[in-house]
């Protein structure tokens, strides 16, 4: 239990600093910005305390907001992503999620891709919608959401394959 707690705390801190020190400075073509800190929400233990998870997700977004001075949009996007996570897990993994026996490293690639893509897409749509906060810019919101989501999903899947323990 202690190692899981330590790994979650370390993941939280490393992802916040990676996001604010490096990834926030990546801006491809003017609208592609990776948000890898969503990885914390994706990897939080599935059987963990949900109230604590919602609080930590909010704290994750708030931490990024403090460094970015962005007024709470990351906190709101993280909270929405954390809130819909059980439904996305049930959609992507089906009965395996209901029995709490999911190991992300051992899941089929299609299920893992749908889970990661949908989570990132929801997070980014909320983030960019709150950033623009105008229906006049809906095409820009959709464009930023799509391209940033694709870039973030690629980085997330690379991170998962590089840093996860191989399941046998």
TrEMBL record:
It is a multi-pass membrane protein. Signal peptide: none annotated. Keywords: Cell membrane, Cell shape, Membrane, Transmembrane, Transmembrane helix. One of its GO terms (cellular component) is plasma membrane. GO terms for biological process: regulation of cell shape. It comes from the Bacteria. The chain crosses the membrane at residues 38-60, 72-93, 113-133, 145-163. It is found in: Cell membrane. Belongs to the MreD family. This is Rod shape-determining protein MreD.
């Amino acid at each position: 239990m202690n190692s899981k707690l330590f790994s979650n705390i370390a993941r939280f801190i490393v992802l916040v600093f990676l996001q604010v020190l490096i990834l926030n400075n990546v801006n491809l073509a003017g609208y592609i910005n990776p948000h890898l800190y969503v990885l914390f929400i994706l990897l939080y233990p599935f059987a963990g305390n949900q109230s604590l998870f919602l609080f930590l997700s909010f704290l994750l977004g708030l931490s990024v907001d403090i460094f970015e001075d962005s007024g709470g949009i990351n906190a709101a996007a993280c909270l929405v992503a954390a809130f819909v996570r059980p439904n996305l897990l049930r959609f992507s993994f089906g009965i395996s999620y209901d029995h709490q026996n999911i190991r992300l490293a051992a899941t089929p690639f299609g299920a893992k891709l749908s889970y990661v893509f949908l989570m990132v897409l929801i997070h980014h749509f909320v983030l960019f919608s709150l950033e623009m906060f105008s229906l006049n810019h809906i095409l820009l919101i959709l464009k930023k959401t799509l391209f940033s989501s694709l870039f973030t999903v690629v980085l997330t899947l690379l991170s998962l394959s590089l840093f996860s323990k191989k399941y046998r």
